[in-house]
Amino acid sequence: MAKKRVYKLQIDHLRYPDKGIAFLDDGEGSLKEVHVKHGLPGQLVEAECSNKKKQLVGRILQVLEHAPEETSPICPDFSICGGCSFLNIPYEYELELKKKMVAELLKDVWKEEIPSIIPAPNCAGYRNKMEFSFGDSDAYGLGGKLALGIRKRNRYYEVAVPVDCTLVPKDFKTLAVATLEYFKQTNETFYHRMRHIGNLRYLILRRGEFTGELLINLVTTSGLDQSHVEKWAAELLSLPLNNMPEGEIVGILHTVSDSVADAVVPENVRVLWGRDYFYEKICGLTFRISTFSFFQTYSAGAELLYDTVAEFVGKADKVYDLYCGTGTIAQVLATHKNVMAKEILGMELVPEAVEAAKENAHINGITNCQFIAGDVLKLLTSTPNSNPDVLVLDPPRDGIHPKALHNLIDLGASKIVYISCKPTSLARDLASFMESGYKLTKIRLHDMFPRTPHVETVCLLEKVCN
After folding, report:
1. What is the DSSP letter of 127?
2. What is the CA 11 to chain-centroid distance, rounded?
3. Cα separation values, 390 from 226, 319, 320, 431, Å
């Protein structure tokens, strides 16, 4: 096939995360799969197709016929913004598609019907963290107006300004728009990743859904005029904030990063006003969260997720919470009526997260949790009396390192509760556990990321043989 050609394609089904699958006659009596990102089953599209990594990939140029379930999106930037994927279908159909995608990935390890996905408590304004990028209105970043928002699809520099974004709370929109308007009045420009010029990089906003506390972090290069930073902070403090619970700024930070990487590298963090953390409440517990700490992006959804984890763990004397982060799950299990474990040990690679976990346990008056820092693989081989009843695993998106996985199996826990936000990694790891004497007995899906293709999966594995 030519390097790039335009075809009419009928989208047949979806494959995780949101690849529409179509079929193209290769002219030799066979059908070739074409992966069409952002396509919906039932759509007829005109797509530009090319070979990428031994796959046919299609980029939608226009939708010729809409899918039967398709609706008009309520956000004017939906077709260009990279934040949402499913804003143009009913929420019930979105849940159906997600369930089908996970079922397809897990078909080799789970032969039964997957239960219906647990829906999100609310699909609007649910995100408690947003990382907005500075950019402009020009695709190449060479002369458009300064912008601040979510990067557009297939663009390096263009961003969609979140005035009408349905995923973020009102306070985030107010703060982002005010920040943009302030810096439009200065001579500051956004950081151009290829040319390495400009100063404005990101605006990171975090919020306690149940406390209303707001933490603001402006990320720039060291070349930014410091007087602009001070005036910007003062401007934000004068804004009226009206989310429920009442929005309240508790800290404004300035992070300097001169790294050429397209990521936040906190080389120098300075508190401009207030503190460098905020509080959130989950399952009746209080957690202190710093600007760079991991925390579930949907607090109300996390409460439902942790209830499932506690149910799957059940009564247990000793629980290991691996990849524990700031110890949220461990502390919920330590106090949950379905568990009430006598001893919980959390392991985490990042020392700062472990210190935060210890501090949060102290805040909550929890004495049956211990947290240690280090690589999980090394900790498992060096921890004495490693005989937990239950392992709780919430690994990074890419899953468990193969060597660590074998060490986990050697612990001989009667139960393993595996929490995953990436079902492709989950399917691989589940197969390894099942080959080593575990049976997959329960699966439950939680929609922690409504209007996006992502889904959280909780699995219960029980040991059936030695």
Report:
1. -
2. 27
3. 51, 5, 6, 19
For the chain, the average pLDDT equals 91
What is the total residue count of the chain? 466
Report yes or no: 49 and 4 within 8 Å, Cβ to Cβ. yes
Place of tokens 């509080």: 279
Non-local (6+) Cβ contacts of 35 within 8 A are 15, 19, 20, 21, 55, 56, 57, 58
**459 is a catalytic site residue:** no
Read off the amino acid at residue 119. Answer: P
- pLDDT tens digits for range 75-113: 888 888 878 899 999 999 999 999 999 999 999 999 999
CA distance 98 to 450: 10
CA distance 311 to 298: 20
Catalytic residue among 49, 81, 421, 459: 421
Tell me which residue has tokens 């904030």.
241
Both tokens assigned to 16:
């995780």
Confidence of residue 424 (pLDDT cuts 50, 70, 90): very high
C-beta atoms surrounding 149 within 10 Å: 25
Q: Nearest 5 degrees, angle CA 410-CA 413-CA 415?
A: 135
Nearest partner of 257 among 224, 225, 221, judged by Cα: 221
- Using N-to-C axis directions, what is the helix angle for 423-435 and 402-410, rounded to 10°? 40
Angle between helices 91-105 and 423-435 (to 10 degrees): 40
| 351-387 pLDDT tens trace | 888 999 999 999 999 999 999 999 887 887 776 666 8
Q: Sort strands 277-282 and 285-290 into parallel, antiparallel or unpaired.
A: antiparallel
**Residue 85: Cβ within 10 Å count:** 22
Question: Whose structure tokens read 């397809």?
Answer: 104
Q: Where does the pLDDT of residue 139 fall: very low under 50, low under 70, confident under 90, or very high at 90 and above?
A: low
Q: What is the CA radius of gyration of the chain?
A: 24
Which helix (H) or strand (E) segment is 132 a member of?
strand 129-136
Q: What distances in angstroms separate CA 166 from CA 76, 88, 242, 297, one per listed residue?
A: 11, 12, 16, 15
